Amino acid sequence: MKYFKKIEPIKYEGSKSTNPFSFKYYNPNEIILGKPMKEHLKFSMAYWHTLTGSGIDPFGSATVERSWDDNAENEIDKAKVRVKVAFELMEKLGIEYFCFHDRDIAPEQDTLEETNRVLDEIVDIIEGEMKRTGIKLLWGTANLFGNKRFVNGASTSPNADIFAFAAAQTKKAMEITKRLGGSGYVFWGGREGYETLLNTDMKFELDNFARFLHMAVDYAKEIEFNGQFYIEPKPKEPTKHQYDFDSATVISFLRQYGLDKSFKLNIETNHATLAGHTMNHELRLAAINDMLGSVDANQGDLLLGWDTDQFPTDIYGGVLAMYEIIRAGGFTTGGLNFDAKVRRPSFKEEDLLIAHIAGMDTYAAGLRIAARLWEDKVLEDNLDHRYRSFNDGIGKKIVSNEVGFKQLEEYVLAKKELNPNEPGKQELLEAILNQYIIG
Ligand code: XLS
Ligand code: NI
Ligand code: NI
Question: Is 277 annotated as catalytic?
Fold first, then answer.
């Protein structure tokens, strides 16, 4: 314990506490809906933003102050120190999971062989820290977008050698994920998309993308990696059009290529925003298709059109997301991964703690409120009432597939007057939701 010496492990102090280094709503072992809060929420730290985020933006250089980086002699030493920092930070916060890309934990070297050797060295240290602390790997992934070789995509690149390189890199990332006992592996199509159709064979690229994923499924079987595969939808950025646009697009792609039994979705709030959807829409769509896997918990700025990856502080979104997760029966292999970075002016080391506390409290409060909504059956009772005309009579015949157009025409002609429509009660439900939120 040496990088955050001045900060005690973060404790739950309740909503009246004025201590910035305390949880106001997250009380890890408090039982909600029959299980501890920490099991509902399964918080995870994103290694890339937290350990490698520098505060750089298109207009300015790094801003963050990180004493551990300054004291390291070279990039490999830096990577080694960061492992210790990461685990100390998670211990202080009581975060029990983390996620990483291969290139966040270890810097790329001149050859793939050398890169993998350095990667193994860092994985050794991570494995030791996992044993020491009991912290687990939620998912691993490969960075197939940062290096300039991926300028035209990875598995959708027009260059077969790049496809091959992406496969080799993914193979290794799957191996280290297995070695670290990861409960999942994410495919986020970093540059799997296109800038202009003038130079793009869309069908060929999509076929290749599916070929790549089938190879991954085959290799997982071969090495007995039993973790869950996820696809993380995102509509745009870095390419103008990303193939994994949103939940609906990904689900239909997986079905078309016979991959739907092997994948679930990792849904990110900011990506939902960019796709023009709410997060709860994306979660519901995944859930009703039995594909709700994991969540990248962050938020975007509605006034900006890019992936700002802010820590989630929007309570309304937190409630509705947790409601969908409860409704879907909770996480199994997945969790809430803070794919979020501190703002550029939040450059102090302690800001890393403050930001995570804010995100954890937002989802913890969201869980508390969503659990009450769920227990009181506020929305579910309204649904039962709203769709009750399908419980008997002609409605029942429709849902049990007993009638077709001819019988329905006969029914209408005989009936003369249709049952009246009822109001949707949107404002009432929104007002009730406010009552639950404000208390
Ligand atoms: C980028 C993605 C990325 C994935 C992992 O927008 O959110 O961080 O979660 O590759
Ligand atoms: Ni993400
Ligand atoms: Ni993102």
Answer: no
55: helix, strand or coil: coil
> Which residues, 6+ apart, have CB-to-CB distance to 18 below 8 Å?
none
Euclidean distance between CA atoms 329 and 290, whole angstroms:
11
| β-pair type (263-268, 292-296) | parallel
| Residue 383: other Cβ atoms inside 10 A | 10
How would you class 430 by CB atoms within 10 Å of its CB: exposed for 0-12, middle for 13-18, buried for 19 or more? exposed
Closest-CA residue, ligand 1 atom 3, reads 188
pLDDT in tens, 396-427: 999 999 999 999 999 999 998 999 999 999 99
* Cβ 37 under 6 angstroms from ligand 1: no
| Catalytic-role residue among 101, 271, 277, 281 | 101
Is the minimum distance from the CB of 341 to ligand 1 under 6 angstroms? no
Neighbours of ion ligand 2 (CB under 5 A): 268, 296, 339
pLDDT single digits (tens) 183-240: 999 999 999 999 999 999 999 999 999 999 999 999 999 999 999 999 999 999 999 9
Which residue from 349, 385, 331 is spatially nearest to 71, judged by alpha carbons? 349
- Counting every residue written for the chain, the total comes to 439
The answer to whether the beta carbons of residues 403 and 397 sit under 8 Å apart is yes
> Which is nearest to 341 in space by CA: 403, 399, 270, 285?
270
Does ligand 1 have an atom closer than 6 angstroms to the CB of 339? yes
Q: Choose among 308, 302, 315, 321: nearest CA to 358.
A: 315
Q: Is 104 a catalytic residue?
A: yes
Alpha carbon distance 33, 41 (integer Å): 12
Q: Are 264 and 283 in contact (CB under 8 A)?
A: no
Which of ligand 1's atoms lies nearest the C-alpha of 49?
8
Give the strand pairing for 263-268 and 136-141: unpaired
Choose among 240, 317, 313, 316: nearest CA to 272: 317
Active-site annotation holder among 104, 246, 296, 307:
104
